[in-house]
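Q&A log
Question type: sequence-to-structure
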Amino acid sequence: MVQDSFELNYNEVDILTIELGVELIPMGHYLCIDTGTATKKIKGKKTKDPAFGISAMWIEQTKKDKAKSAGYTVADPPGIIATHLSEIIKRNAADILGLQDTQNILDRLSSKYPTVVKEATREDRGLGVVEIWRILQGLLKENVSIRNMVSILESIAVYVSISKDIRFHIEKARLTLAKQICSQYADAKDPDKTAYQWTIIAEQGDTDAMIKLGTYFYQKTENRYVRTENQKTEPNKAVIAGDLHMAEHWFTEAAKRGDVQAQFVLGAYYHLAENGPKDFSKAVFWYNKAANQGNSKAQFFLGNCYHKGEGVQKDQDRAVYWWSLAAAQGNDEAKKMISGIKYERL
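Response status: OK
Response body:
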C-alpha cells in the first residue's frame, strides 16, 4: 500500500520508514541514457541511473524528442520512480518481508491449498510462522523468488520430519525450485550458459533436464565443422563424437529412471538419428520399454521395426499388434500402416 505523508518532501518516497535508497528528480527533467545506440551528443547534467547505476544524464523536457531521435533511451519521472522502487524492493525483499506478511500469505493459501498449509504448519511436527518467515527471508537473500509458495510449503511438509533447521529447509526449498531458478538465469541467446544451468538440475536427478541436455548435445553435432588443409569444410568427427557421447549419456540416464519420454527418445536416437550410432537392437529395447508404458510413438516405431526386421526378426503380426495399440490412441500413421498391411494380404 502506498500512502502520502506531509512529513516527506514532494520528491521523496519512504518504504517502511527505512532509508533503502535516495534519489532526487529535478523538476521538469527526463533521464537520458546512451545504451550504445546514440548517434549524436546531447548536452545534459551528468548523473547515474538510480536503478542500475549506469551513466546517464538529466535533460530538460524540451530536449526529450531530440534525444529520442538521436537514439537515447529517455525515461519520464513516473517510469524512473517505478523502476527505482522495483529494484530497491528486489534488493531488499528479505528485509521488507515481515512476520505479519508471512502470516497473511499463509492465510490466503489456506483457502485454496488447506492440506499443504496444514501439513507444513502442524503443531505436532510442522514449523511455526516464525520459522517459515526465516526460510522465506533466506531464499530472498539469495535472490530466489518466493512466488511459488505452494512448492516451498510442500518441501517443508516433506522434510520437516527429518529436521527443523532453517538452513536445511532453505536448501531443500532451493532444490525444489531448481527449475524456476535456472530458468531465471537461462539465456536463449547463450545456449551454453543455459545448458550449464540444466546440468545443475540434471545432476539432481531431474529427467526433464536430462532430456533437454541430451537434445542440446545432439543438436550441437549439426554445426560441428572444421576447415581442412585444402580449405574444404568437413564435419569435425572428434568433436561430434564427444557431443554424441554426452547426448547418449543424458538420454540413457533419464531412460533408466523410467521416464517414458526419455525411453522413446533414446530408442529414436539409436534408430533414426542421422548423426547418431545406429543400433537397432538397442532401439527396439527402449521402444519396447516406452511402448509398454503406453507411449503411442514408441508403439508405432516398434511396429515399424517388426515390419522391416530392424533389431528383431520380421513379424507382421507383431507389427500390426503394436500399430493397433498406437492407432487406438489416435496415431494416424499407424492407421495407414495397418490399412497397407490389410491390402497386401488381400
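Response note: The domain at 1-91 is CATH 3.40.30.60 (Glutaredoxin).
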